[in-house]
Write a structure and sequence with these properties.
With 233 residues, the protein is α+β, with helices and mostly antiparallel strands. Helix content is 35%, strand content 25%. The chain is built from five helices and twelve strands. The radius of gyration is 48 Å and the shape is rod-shaped. The N and C termini lie far apart (127 Å).
Length: 233
Amino acid sequence: MDDVKRLLEGFADRTVDGLPAADVEADVARGRRALRRIRTRRRVAGVLCAAAVTTAVLAIGNQVKWWGGGGTEVATGSDEAGASAGTEAAGTATPAATGADQAGESASVFAGAMIELTANSKAWSNIDCSLAPQGWTPEAPVTTDRVVLTPPLVRTSDAAAKLVLQSATEARSLQAVRVTEADGKVFHVGTEAGRAAGQVKLGERWLLVQLPVGDKDWNDEILRRFMGSCTVS
């Protein structure tokens, strides 16, 4: 400021025609006031900038905390606990129990989209089964050592859609055999003459069951349950 004053005094010594003499003190006072205003504005601007930066940092931090909360409705410090609880709950899901597990062999057993084994109280012939596919009816006439079951909504002339039970003294040769032992019985499941089939020895005779051609509603477990419920006299 002293340098500015000396500069103004030097200019004041140089008079100019038609202009009043320069008032150095007044000019210096005005300069000082202008400098104070500039400094005040700078301080205010600095405070506002700092406040804006702080607000932005807080907003970004809250947003990151919100999105990192694993889908919780409120961003709190318990995000990790919530995520852990969700993982634990997902890992302890209980599988649905089947009909067989709940009620045993005598009750209905769900076997697929259309197959359900239910209690059978009617003797067919020397082949008798305590379980039968629901809605399937024996084809007349029922002969010894052979029973043919017709599914519902199927034409009686469609032999490939029927279930055939046959009793014989000798086992049949099955292809791609899968052998399973349960309840003291040995079940053989495979194919015979291009049809899925299973057989089991009941007493002194063998029971062969041929499934409908291309029927996807039967499976090995249901076939074994069905054959295991049968007797041959």
